[in-house]
Amino acid sequence: MRNLCIVGLQWGDEGKGKIVDYYADRFHAVVRFNGGSNAGHTIVHNGRTFVFHLLPSGLLKKKRLLIGPGVALDPLTLNEELGMLAKEGGEADLMVDERCTLVTPLEKELDSFIEGLRGAKPIGTTKRGIGPSYAMRALRLTPRAGDLAKGDFDLSSAIAFYRTFLKEIPDLSGWTENSKKILAGRTGDVGGEIMALNDAGHSVMFEGAQGTLLDLIFGTYPFVTGAHTIASYVPAGLGIPNGALGDVMGVAKAYTTRVGGGPFPTEIPGETGEQIRKEGKEYGATTGRPRRVGWLDIVGLKYAVRLNGVSELALTKVDILTKIREMKVCVGYSIDGEETGDFSKALPRLAEAKPVYRTMPSFYGLELRENHLPQAAEQLVEFLEEELKVKVTLVSTGEERSATMQRHA
Ligand code: IMO
Ligand code: MG
User: Fold this and answer.
1) Of 183, 199, 227, which residue is a domain's last?
2) Which residues are catalytic?
3) CA 129 – ligand 1 centroid, Å
4) I need a surface site. Which of 233, 292, 344, 363 has the fewest CB within 10 A?
5) pLDDT averages per 10-residue partition of the chain, 409 residues
Protein backbone atom coordinates (compact mmCIF):
# COMPACT_ATOMS: atom_id res chain seq x y z
CA MET A 1 0.00 0.00 0.00
CA ARG A 2 1.13 3.54 -0.73
CA ASN A 3 1.93 6.10 1.92
CA LEU A 4 -0.81 8.61 2.69
CA CYS A 5 -0.54 12.29 3.51
CA ILE A 6 -3.30 14.11 5.41
CA VAL A 7 -3.37 17.90 5.07
CA GLY A 8 -5.74 20.67 6.15
CA LEU A 9 -7.30 22.69 3.31
CA GLN A 10 -8.50 25.71 5.30
CA TRP A 11 -6.99 27.71 8.19
CA GLY A 12 -6.41 24.69 10.44
CA ASP A 13 -8.77 22.87 12.81
CA GLU A 14 -10.37 20.93 9.98
CA GLY A 15 -10.55 17.71 12.01
CA LYS A 16 -7.26 16.21 10.84
CA GLY A 17 -6.73 14.43 14.17
CA LYS A 18 -9.93 12.43 13.80
CA ILE A 19 -9.13 11.45 10.20
CA VAL A 20 -5.58 10.37 11.09
CA ASP A 21 -6.90 8.29 13.97
CA TYR A 22 -9.55 6.76 11.67
CA TYR A 23 -6.99 5.61 9.09
CA ALA A 24 -4.11 4.80 11.45
CA ASP A 25 -4.91 1.06 11.54
CA ARG A 26 -3.84 0.73 7.92
CA PHE A 27 -0.35 2.12 8.50
CA HIS A 28 2.74 1.08 10.39
CA ALA A 29 3.75 4.56 11.52
CA VAL A 30 2.34 8.08 11.79
CA VAL A 31 4.71 10.96 11.06
CA ARG A 32 4.45 14.63 12.01
CA PHE A 33 6.27 16.66 9.36
CA ASN A 34 5.53 20.32 10.12
CA GLY A 35 4.58 22.85 12.77
CA GLY A 36 4.97 22.18 16.46
CA SER A 37 2.87 22.52 19.57
CA ASN A 38 0.82 25.28 17.91
CA ALA A 39 -1.26 22.39 16.57
CA GLY A 40 -4.12 20.96 18.60
CA HIS A 41 -5.32 17.61 17.29
CA THR A 42 -8.40 16.27 18.97
CA ILE A 43 -9.40 12.62 19.10
CA VAL A 44 -12.59 11.48 20.79
CA HIS A 45 -12.56 7.85 21.79
CA ASN A 46 -15.19 6.05 23.89
CA GLY A 47 -16.58 9.39 25.02
CA ARG A 48 -13.20 10.72 26.16
CA THR A 49 -11.46 13.64 24.47
CA PHE A 50 -7.71 13.64 23.91
CA VAL A 51 -5.84 16.65 22.54
CA PHE A 52 -2.31 16.28 21.23
CA HIS A 53 -0.06 19.11 20.15
CA LEU A 54 3.15 17.38 19.24
CA LEU A 55 2.82 13.60 19.30
CA PRO A 56 1.35 12.18 16.07
CA SER A 57 -2.33 11.26 16.32
CA GLY A 58 -1.60 7.56 15.74
CA LEU A 59 -0.74 7.12 19.40
CA LEU A 60 -4.11 5.81 20.57
CA LYS A 61 -3.72 3.06 17.97
CA LYS A 62 -0.26 2.25 19.36
CA LYS A 63 1.51 3.02 16.10
CA ARG A 64 5.18 3.81 15.65
CA LEU A 65 5.40 7.60 16.08
CA LEU A 66 7.88 9.71 14.15
CA ILE A 67 8.58 13.43 14.50
CA GLY A 68 10.39 14.73 11.44
CA PRO A 69 13.06 17.44 11.11
CA GLY A 70 10.49 19.95 9.80
CA VAL A 71 8.88 20.08 13.27
CA ALA A 72 9.72 22.81 15.81
CA LEU A 73 10.17 20.69 18.91
CA ASP A 74 9.33 21.83 22.42
CA PRO A 75 10.76 19.07 24.65
CA LEU A 76 8.57 20.06 27.60
CA THR A 77 5.35 19.65 25.61
CA LEU A 78 6.65 16.32 24.39
CA ASN A 79 7.26 15.26 27.96
CA GLU A 80 3.75 16.28 29.04
CA GLU A 81 2.21 14.24 26.24
CA LEU A 82 4.38 11.21 26.95
CA GLY A 83 3.25 11.52 30.57
CA MET A 84 -0.41 11.63 29.50
CA LEU A 85 0.10 8.53 27.42
CA ALA A 86 1.88 6.72 30.26
CA LYS A 87 -1.11 7.46 32.54
CA GLU A 88 -3.30 5.69 30.00
CA GLY A 89 -1.00 2.70 30.30
CA GLY A 90 0.65 3.27 26.95
CA GLU A 91 4.25 3.79 26.03
CA ALA A 92 5.19 5.68 22.91
CA ASP A 93 7.29 3.94 20.31
CA LEU A 94 8.81 7.29 19.32
CA MET A 95 11.68 8.67 17.25
CA VAL A 96 12.43 12.40 17.06
CA ASP A 97 14.64 13.56 14.22
CA GLU A 98 18.01 14.83 15.36
CA ARG A 99 17.67 17.79 12.97
CA CYS A 100 14.50 19.18 14.62
CA THR A 101 14.80 22.82 15.53
CA LEU A 102 14.08 23.38 19.23
CA VAL A 103 11.73 25.67 21.07
CA THR A 104 13.39 26.92 24.25
CA PRO A 105 11.70 29.37 26.67
CA LEU A 106 13.54 32.11 24.75
CA GLU A 107 11.64 31.49 21.52
CA LYS A 108 8.37 31.74 23.43
CA GLU A 109 9.52 35.09 24.88
CA LEU A 110 10.39 36.26 21.39
CA ASP A 111 6.98 35.19 20.06
CA SER A 112 5.20 37.45 22.59
CA PHE A 113 7.75 40.22 22.12
CA ILE A 114 7.23 40.35 18.34
CA GLU A 115 3.46 40.22 18.67
CA GLY A 116 3.79 43.28 20.93
CA LEU A 117 5.75 45.10 18.20
CA ARG A 118 2.93 44.60 15.72
CA GLY A 119 0.70 47.04 17.60
CA ALA A 120 -2.85 47.14 16.28
CA LYS A 121 -2.31 44.28 13.80
CA PRO A 122 -1.05 41.26 15.72
CA ILE A 123 -1.07 37.90 13.93
CA GLY A 124 -2.61 36.30 16.99
CA THR A 125 -0.01 33.54 17.17
CA THR A 126 -0.38 30.69 19.64
CA LYS A 127 2.70 32.08 21.47
CA ARG A 128 4.25 28.60 21.36
CA GLY A 129 7.50 30.00 19.91
CA ILE A 130 7.02 28.33 16.54
CA GLY A 131 7.90 31.18 14.14
CA PRO A 132 10.90 32.22 16.27
CA SER A 133 12.21 28.64 16.42
CA TYR A 134 12.23 28.38 12.61
CA ALA A 135 13.74 31.87 12.39
CA MET A 136 16.54 30.88 14.79
CA ARG A 137 17.24 27.88 12.58
CA ALA A 138 17.37 30.12 9.49
CA LEU A 139 19.78 32.39 11.37
CA ARG A 140 21.76 29.29 12.37
CA LEU A 141 21.75 30.45 15.95
CA THR A 142 20.11 27.61 17.80
CA PRO A 143 21.30 24.05 18.36
CA ARG A 144 19.10 21.14 17.32
CA ALA A 145 17.46 18.18 19.04
CA GLY A 146 20.37 15.84 18.29
CA ASP A 147 22.92 18.28 19.74
CA LEU A 148 20.90 18.48 22.94
CA ALA A 149 20.52 14.71 23.22
CA LYS A 150 24.27 14.27 22.74
CA GLY A 151 25.07 16.97 25.30
CA ASP A 152 26.83 19.02 22.64
CA PHE A 153 24.65 22.02 23.34
CA ASP A 154 25.84 25.60 23.20
CA LEU A 155 23.28 28.37 23.54
CA SER A 156 25.78 31.21 23.95
CA SER A 157 25.33 32.78 20.47
CA ALA A 158 21.55 32.54 20.79
CA ILE A 159 21.66 34.16 24.23
CA ALA A 160 23.94 36.96 22.97
CA PHE A 161 21.38 37.60 20.23
CA TYR A 162 18.45 37.66 22.69
CA ARG A 163 20.32 40.02 25.04
CA THR A 164 20.24 42.71 22.35
CA PHE A 165 16.51 43.18 22.81
CA LEU A 166 15.16 41.15 25.75
CA LYS A 167 15.50 42.81 29.16
CA GLU A 168 15.75 39.58 31.08
CA ILE A 169 17.20 36.27 30.04
CA PRO A 170 15.95 33.36 32.15
CA ASP A 171 18.42 30.79 33.46
CA LEU A 172 18.21 27.89 31.03
CA SER A 173 20.34 25.33 32.85
CA GLY A 174 17.34 23.54 34.38
CA TRP A 175 15.54 23.53 31.04
CA THR A 176 18.61 22.13 29.29
CA GLU A 177 19.13 19.30 31.79
CA ASN A 178 15.48 18.38 31.73
CA SER A 179 15.18 18.47 27.95
CA LYS A 180 18.31 16.42 27.51
CA LYS A 181 16.80 13.67 29.66
CA ILE A 182 13.53 13.80 27.73
CA LEU A 183 15.28 13.37 24.37
CA ALA A 184 17.89 10.84 25.49
CA GLY A 185 17.69 7.68 23.39
CA ARG A 186 14.85 9.07 21.30
CA THR A 187 16.64 10.90 18.49
CA GLY A 188 17.53 9.52 15.07
CA ASP A 189 17.14 9.88 11.32
CA VAL A 190 13.41 9.89 10.65
CA GLY A 191 13.71 10.10 6.83
CA GLY A 192 15.97 7.05 6.86
CA GLU A 193 13.52 5.24 9.13
CA ILE A 194 10.61 5.94 6.76
CA MET A 195 12.56 4.59 3.79
CA ALA A 196 13.54 1.47 5.75
CA LEU A 197 9.89 0.88 6.67
CA ASN A 198 8.78 1.34 3.04
CA ASP A 199 11.52 -1.02 1.86
CA ALA A 200 10.26 -3.62 4.33
CA GLY A 201 6.76 -3.29 2.82
CA HIS A 202 5.23 -1.09 5.52
CA SER A 203 3.46 2.13 4.62
CA VAL A 204 3.30 5.26 6.72
CA MET A 205 0.93 8.16 7.16
CA PHE A 206 2.04 11.79 7.19
CA GLU A 207 -0.01 13.96 9.52
CA GLY A 208 -0.14 17.62 8.54
CA ALA A 209 -0.57 20.36 11.10
CA GLN A 210 -2.26 23.72 10.48
CA GLY A 211 -3.92 24.31 7.11
CA THR A 212 -3.01 25.31 3.57
CA LEU A 213 -4.12 28.92 3.99
CA LEU A 214 -1.69 29.26 6.93
CA ASP A 215 1.31 28.20 4.80
CA LEU A 216 4.25 30.56 5.29
CA ILE A 217 4.59 31.30 1.57
CA PHE A 218 1.25 30.41 -0.03
CA GLY A 219 -1.13 31.40 2.77
CA THR A 220 -2.62 34.75 3.74
CA TYR A 221 0.78 36.29 4.56
CA PRO A 222 1.61 37.82 7.00
CA PHE A 223 -1.26 36.15 8.86
CA VAL A 224 0.27 32.70 8.56
CA THR A 225 2.32 30.27 10.61
CA GLY A 226 6.12 30.02 10.58
CA ALA A 227 6.44 26.95 8.35
CA HIS A 228 4.98 25.08 5.41
CA THR A 229 1.68 23.31 5.65
CA ILE A 230 1.33 21.88 2.14
CA ALA A 231 1.96 18.32 1.00
CA SER A 232 5.12 19.13 -0.96
CA TYR A 233 6.77 19.86 2.37
CA VAL A 234 6.51 16.16 3.22
CA PRO A 235 9.40 15.08 0.94
CA ALA A 236 11.34 18.33 1.35
CA GLY A 237 10.92 18.48 5.12
CA LEU A 238 11.55 14.80 5.83
CA GLY A 239 14.36 14.17 3.36
CA ILE A 240 12.54 11.47 1.39
CA PRO A 241 12.01 11.31 -2.39
CA ASN A 242 8.88 12.86 -3.95
CA GLY A 243 7.57 9.43 -4.91
CA ALA A 244 7.38 8.49 -1.22
CA LEU A 245 4.70 11.11 -0.58
CA GLY A 246 2.01 8.71 -1.81
CA ASP A 247 -1.64 9.81 -1.90
CA VAL A 248 -2.79 13.16 -0.60
CA MET A 249 -6.03 13.42 1.32
CA GLY A 250 -7.28 16.94 2.00
CA VAL A 251 -9.46 17.58 5.04
CA ALA A 252 -12.05 20.35 4.95
CA LYS A 253 -14.78 21.27 7.38
CA ALA A 254 -18.30 21.75 5.97
CA TYR A 255 -17.93 25.38 7.07
CA THR A 256 -14.77 27.39 7.76
CA THR A 257 -13.01 28.63 10.88
CA ARG A 258 -9.97 30.78 11.54
CA VAL A 259 -8.19 31.67 14.81
CA GLY A 260 -6.22 34.88 15.11
CA GLY A 261 -6.03 37.84 12.72
CA GLY A 262 -6.15 38.06 8.94
CA PRO A 263 -8.66 38.27 6.10
CA PHE A 264 -11.63 35.88 6.15
CA PRO A 265 -14.07 36.65 3.29
CA THR A 266 -16.83 34.24 4.35
CA GLU A 267 -16.83 35.13 8.06
CA ILE A 268 -20.40 35.12 9.43
CA PRO A 269 -21.28 38.03 11.68
CA GLY A 270 -23.89 37.80 14.41
CA GLU A 271 -26.10 35.04 15.64
CA THR A 272 -25.61 32.30 13.00
CA GLY A 273 -21.83 32.47 13.44
CA GLU A 274 -22.23 32.30 17.21
CA GLN A 275 -24.54 29.32 16.90
CA ILE A 276 -22.12 27.37 14.69
CA ARG A 277 -19.29 28.21 17.12
CA LYS A 278 -21.33 26.83 20.02
CA GLU A 279 -22.61 23.71 18.25
CA GLY A 280 -19.21 22.97 16.69
CA LYS A 281 -17.28 23.67 19.94
CA GLU A 282 -15.15 26.06 17.92
CA TYR A 283 -12.74 27.13 20.62
CA GLY A 284 -8.98 26.74 20.12
CA ALA A 285 -7.66 23.35 21.29
CA THR A 286 -4.29 25.01 21.98
CA THR A 287 -5.21 28.48 23.24
CA GLY A 288 -8.92 28.23 24.11
CA ARG A 289 -9.66 31.29 21.98
CA PRO A 290 -13.07 31.44 20.26
CA ARG A 291 -12.59 30.62 16.60
CA ARG A 292 -13.98 32.94 13.94
CA VAL A 293 -16.64 31.12 11.93
CA GLY A 294 -17.62 31.38 8.25
CA TRP A 295 -19.34 29.59 5.37
CA LEU A 296 -17.59 27.01 3.24
CA ASP A 297 -15.33 28.75 0.72
CA ILE A 298 -14.97 26.90 -2.59
CA VAL A 299 -12.56 29.53 -3.94
CA GLY A 300 -10.09 28.85 -1.12
CA LEU A 301 -10.65 25.09 -1.42
CA LYS A 302 -9.86 25.06 -5.16
CA TYR A 303 -6.58 26.83 -4.44
CA ALA A 304 -5.77 24.38 -1.65
CA VAL A 305 -6.61 21.34 -3.80
CA ARG A 306 -4.25 22.62 -6.49
CA LEU A 307 -1.40 23.48 -4.13
CA ASN A 308 -1.46 20.10 -2.42
CA GLY A 309 -2.27 17.93 -5.42
CA VAL A 310 -5.19 16.56 -3.39
CA SER A 311 -6.41 13.24 -4.72
CA GLU A 312 -9.28 12.72 -2.28
CA LEU A 313 -11.18 14.71 0.25
CA ALA A 314 -12.58 14.17 3.75
CA LEU A 315 -15.47 16.45 4.67
CA THR A 316 -15.89 16.92 8.42
CA LYS A 317 -18.39 18.30 10.93
CA VAL A 318 -21.37 17.87 8.62
CA ASP A 319 -23.47 17.12 11.73
CA ILE A 320 -22.97 20.65 13.07
CA LEU A 321 -24.88 22.12 10.13
CA THR A 322 -27.94 20.02 10.97
CA LYS A 323 -28.47 22.49 13.84
CA ILE A 324 -28.31 25.51 11.52
CA ARG A 325 -31.22 26.78 9.41
CA GLU A 326 -29.19 28.52 6.71
CA MET A 327 -26.76 26.91 4.29
CA LYS A 328 -24.49 28.82 1.94
CA VAL A 329 -21.24 28.22 0.11
CA CYS A 330 -18.99 30.85 -1.43
CA VAL A 331 -18.39 30.34 -5.15
CA GLY A 332 -16.56 33.57 -6.02
CA TYR A 333 -15.32 36.91 -4.69
CA SER A 334 -16.28 40.37 -5.79
CA ILE A 335 -13.49 42.94 -5.51
CA ASP A 336 -14.27 46.47 -6.67
CA GLY A 337 -17.26 45.15 -8.57
CA GLU A 338 -15.19 42.56 -10.43
CA GLU A 339 -15.78 38.89 -9.84
CA THR A 340 -13.08 36.27 -9.53
CA GLY A 341 -12.88 32.62 -8.62
CA ASP A 342 -9.09 32.70 -8.39
CA PHE A 343 -7.87 32.77 -4.79
CA SER A 344 -4.30 33.51 -5.78
CA LYS A 345 -5.34 36.60 -7.75
CA ALA A 346 -7.64 37.77 -4.95
CA LEU A 347 -5.02 37.24 -2.21
CA PRO A 348 -3.45 40.73 -2.19
CA ARG A 349 -6.92 42.26 -1.68
CA LEU A 350 -8.60 39.47 0.23
CA ALA A 351 -9.58 41.82 3.07
CA GLU A 352 -11.84 43.71 0.63
CA ALA A 353 -13.26 40.62 -1.10
CA LYS A 354 -17.06 40.27 -0.85
CA PRO A 355 -18.17 36.65 -1.07
CA VAL A 356 -20.54 35.59 -3.84
CA TYR A 357 -22.76 32.96 -2.27
CA ARG A 358 -24.78 30.10 -3.60
CA THR A 359 -27.63 29.06 -1.34
CA MET A 360 -27.76 25.31 -0.82
CA PRO A 361 -30.53 23.13 0.64
CA SER A 362 -30.40 23.50 4.41
CA PHE A 363 -29.16 20.61 6.57
CA TYR A 364 -31.44 21.69 9.41
CA GLY A 365 -32.93 18.76 11.27
CA LEU A 366 -31.41 16.13 8.98
CA GLU A 367 -30.96 12.73 10.56
CA LEU A 368 -27.52 11.29 9.94
CA ARG A 369 -27.80 7.54 10.12
CA GLU A 370 -24.98 5.09 9.60
CA ASN A 371 -23.91 4.80 5.97
CA HIS A 372 -26.67 6.97 4.66
CA LEU A 373 -26.25 10.61 3.71
CA PRO A 374 -29.51 12.55 3.50
CA GLN A 375 -30.20 14.20 0.18
CA ALA A 376 -29.17 17.75 1.11
CA ALA A 377 -25.79 16.55 2.38
CA GLU A 378 -25.29 14.31 -0.65
CA GLN A 379 -26.04 17.32 -2.85
CA LEU A 380 -23.28 19.34 -1.18
CA VAL A 381 -20.84 16.46 -1.54
CA GLU A 382 -21.63 16.07 -5.25
CA PHE A 383 -21.33 19.83 -5.75
CA LEU A 384 -17.87 19.75 -4.13
CA GLU A 385 -16.78 16.81 -6.27
CA GLU A 386 -17.85 18.66 -9.40
CA GLU A 387 -16.25 21.98 -8.46
CA LEU A 388 -13.01 20.59 -7.03
CA LYS A 389 -12.63 17.61 -9.36
CA VAL A 390 -11.76 15.30 -6.47
CA LYS A 391 -13.62 12.44 -4.88
CA VAL A 392 -15.07 12.99 -1.42
CA THR A 393 -14.00 9.72 0.15
CA LEU A 394 -15.02 10.33 3.74
CA VAL A 395 -17.78 12.27 5.42
CA SER A 396 -17.48 12.77 9.15
CA THR A 397 -20.79 13.09 10.97
CA GLY A 398 -19.62 13.25 14.58
CA GLU A 399 -16.65 13.26 16.92
CA GLU A 400 -16.37 9.53 17.48
CA ARG A 401 -14.48 7.18 15.16
CA SER A 402 -17.75 5.37 14.45
CA ALA A 403 -19.42 8.53 13.10
CA THR A 404 -17.58 8.31 9.79
CA MET A 405 -19.04 7.51 6.39
CA GLN A 406 -16.82 5.93 3.81
CA ARG A 407 -18.21 6.91 0.37
CA HIS A 408 -15.53 5.27 -1.75
CA ALA A 409 -13.07 2.52 -0.87
P1 IMO B 1 -4.01 22.62 13.81
O2 IMO B 1 -2.92 21.66 13.46
C3 IMO B 1 -5.57 26.67 13.76
C4 IMO B 1 -2.69 29.97 13.64
C5 IMO B 1 -2.66 30.85 14.85
C6 IMO B 1 -2.28 32.19 14.20
C7 IMO B 1 -1.30 31.77 13.12
C8 IMO B 1 0.16 31.90 13.52
O9 IMO B 1 -4.71 22.37 15.09
O10 IMO B 1 -4.94 22.79 12.64
P11 IMO B 1 1.71 30.42 15.14
O12 IMO B 1 1.61 30.17 16.61
O13 IMO B 1 1.67 29.20 14.31
O14 IMO B 1 2.86 31.33 14.76
O15 IMO B 1 0.39 31.28 14.79
O16 IMO B 1 -1.59 30.40 12.84
N17 IMO B 1 -2.51 28.52 13.91
C18 IMO B 1 -3.51 27.63 13.89
N19 IMO B 1 -4.83 27.79 13.72
N20 IMO B 1 -5.08 25.43 13.92
C21 IMO B 1 -3.74 25.24 14.04
O22 IMO B 1 -3.20 24.00 14.04
C23 IMO B 1 -2.89 26.36 14.08
N24 IMO B 1 -1.56 26.54 14.23
C25 IMO B 1 -1.34 27.86 14.11
O26 IMO B 1 -3.92 30.91 15.46
O27 IMO B 1 -3.39 32.76 13.58
MG1 MG C 1 -5.87 23.80 16.12
Assistant:
1) 183
2) 13, 41
3) 11
4) 344
5) 97 97 96 97 90 92 95 97 91 96 97 95 97 97 92 92 94 95 97 98 98 98 98 97 98 98 97 97 92 98 98 97 98 97 98 98 93 94 98 96 89
